[in-house]
Amino acid sequence: QVQLVESGGGLVQAGGSLRLSCQASGRSFSMYTMHWFRQAPGKEREFVASIPWSGGRIYYADSVKGRFTISKDNAKNTVYLQMDTLNADDTAVYYCNVRLGASSYWGQGTQVTVSL
Fold it and tell me: What is the 3-class SS of 36-55, one letter each residue?
């Protein structure tokens, strides 16, 4: 059974940094792409970044380019999201996601709150 567990969220001041982690388990993910999404209060869930597990092109939302960095550790089956120069607009619940064929799996999310 596929499981995604996010961690690393918290409260940070504007301009600060956080690193989120997504621990994946339950099967091999080597042929798939891992994604980070976020959902702010009252808004729809939006794409943040993605990375192919086997290597390849990385994508970022325009709103986070130059500030966020997605990476992975194959040995640990873990995907990271390094978030720098955070601002209030980055306040949201952050979710890890993988799509396996017709199925889409989500973690429980981790809250990131950026204070002014």
Answer: EEEECCCCCCEEEEEEECCC
